[in-house]
Design brief:
Blueprint lengths: L2 H11 L4 H21 L6 H16 L3 E2 H7 L4 H13 L3 E5 L7 E5 L1 H14 L4
Antiparallel strand pairs: 1-3, 2-3
């Protein structure tokens, strides 16, 4: 369940319980803090969104095409493209030909990104 869905449910279930709201906001802060330590986001929501989407597609066993990427995140095409190139050069993602359509290029997570998400998961287990 995504964080925002969790927040919405908390708010709707008990609108007057400020302690639960406080816990959730604290959890969001912890997530951002740990993500900043482990991932190359440099205070950029574009990179944060890109990396999360790449990992989501990996975990679902799907290929993430550039077309799907451009329509899935609310950032400029050029900003997305530039950040994908930088992440690829740094070894966080790889861009390859699609297995299903040789005309399409897809973005996939590298082992480096998988290891970072494992570390992030371990660091946040106690929080969530």
């Amino acid at each position: 369940m995504c964080l925002y869905t969790r927040y919405y449910k908390l708010v709707m279930q008990n609108r007057t319980n400020s302690h639960k709201k406080y816990e959730f906001v604290s959890s969001l802060n912890k997530l951002r803090e740990e993500s900043s330590k482990l991932l190359p986001i440099n205070n950029s929501f574009i990179r944060y969104d890109l990396l999360n989407l790449v990992m989501l597609y990996e975990l679902e066993g799907k290929e993430l095409s550039f077309k799907e990427l451009y329509t899935s995140v609310n950032h400029s095409d050029i900003g997305i493209r530039n950040n994908v190139i930088k992440l690829q050069e740094a070894g966080w993602v790889e861009v390859t030909e699609s297995k299903h359509d040789g005309r399409s290029r897809v973005i996939a997570a590298t082992d480096k990104l998988h290891r970072c998400y494992e570390q992030l998961s371990d660091a946040l287990r106690s929080t969530f």
